[in-house]
Amino acid sequence: MFIPKITAQDKGKSQLVFSDPMEPFSYEKLTQMRPVRAPVRTYRGARGLVADLDGLRSFGAESYLEVNALKVIIACSRADFILEQPFHLRYFDQHHKWVSYTPDILFVRHGKVYVVEVKPDNRATDAADLAKFKKITTLLSGYGISYRVWRQSQIKAEPRLSIAIQLLNFRRVQASGHDLEAVRRYLRDGKDPSPLAALVKATCIEPGVICRLILAGSIHLDWASPFKSQSLISLSPFPNRDWPNDAAEER
What we know:
The protein is an alpha+beta fold. The chain has 2 domains: 14-157, 3-Layer(aba) Sandwich (Trna Endonuclease, Chain: A, domain 1); 160-250, no CATH class. The protein has 9 helices and 12 strands. The protein is elongated, with a radius of gyration of 20 Å.
């Protein structure tokens, strides 16, 4: 697994600071990091918590927008690790002053590190905001981190959000190895991809168990259409269906 060399040392005119020392950087150390600060209410909206898939911890969200963003990332991204308020990025702004910026969400998938900033449209579209985000994108790319701003209108229009909310209702359902093997056997027998209803009927496995296997990444859902009985299930990810949309590159 490729892990970018993220350090707390100066990188040109910027610096990353995690909750604990990160020299030398390793995947194991990254997964032991904690948020660098507690969630704060930075603009109108309510703070909240979003539980992870295994019930081991809850992610702190600073707004309802972040709550929804976390739901999509937890359910759809197939992330190996997720961390909210992950680090401080310190850099010189256009006035040559040392400033600090804390992004909303970091997650790792297949060795690639993503950082997501969640913003209302009116705080993500004017010239000053765009210039700031462009600079942050450039700085973080130097550390091997992919950065993107996720606007409120994009989250509201996100087709995977309603599906994620539905699936996360089944995160506490227990799925056994026998369940997974029965599903895999059916799909391997020339039925891949299969509509959900046909899969449930053939394997006699409850839909909630199928949903839990989807959340675990053991099987894959076509997120392109509303979740219903005819939704397609496969052993392989559907191209461009995960969030972010780079699944096709990873296949």
